Amino acid sequence: MGAGATDVPEVTTGVWQVDDEDPQGVRIVVGGSPQLLEIADLTPDRLAIRRPPSTDPG
User: Fold this and answer.
1) What is the sign, positive or negative, of the torsion defined by CA atoms of 53, 38, 51, 46?
2) Cα–Cα distance between 40 and 27 in angstroms, integer?
3) Sheet with 46-50: strands ordered across
4) What sections of 1-58 are H helices per DSSP?
5) Whether the Cβ atoms of residue 9 and residue 16 lie closer than 8 Å to each other
6) Confidence band for 58, pLDDT divided at 50, 70 and 90
7) Rounded to an integer, what distance in angstroms lies between the CA atom of residue 39 and that of residue 27?
8) Would you say 10 and 2 are in contact if contact means Cβ atoms under 8 Å apart?
9) Which long-range contacts (CB under 8 A, 24 or more apart) does 27-33 make?
10) How many helices (H) and strands (E) does the chain have?
11) Per-residue pLDDT reduced to its tens digit, 10-43
């Protein structure tokens, strides 16, 4: 799900899997672009993910 032109969420089809190297991470591929996200919260009926903090100093 990403922000649309009017900041209204748009559903985008993609693929996700738990990251083999980091079980707290979720690897997604949307539009051919891979991203690694963190699991923020996990319950039996909900998975919340977030972008990891930037390691870029600038």
Assistant:
1) negative
2) 14
3) 14-18, 25-30, 33-43, 46-50
4) none
5) no
6) low
7) 10
8) yes
9) 30/2
10) 0, 6
11) 776 767 777 778 778 888 887 788 888 888 888 8
- Contact predicate 14/29, CB 8 Å: yes
What φ, ψ does residue 22 adopt, rounded to 5°? -135, 95
The amino acid present at 1, given as its one-letter code, is M
Give the model's pLDDT for residue 30. 75
The 3-state DSSP composition of the chain as helix, strand, coil percent (nearest 5) reads: 0, 55, 45
Backbone angles phi, psi at 47, to 5 degrees: -125, 120
Number of Cβ within 10 Å of residue 37's Cβ equals 16
pTM exceeding 0.70: no
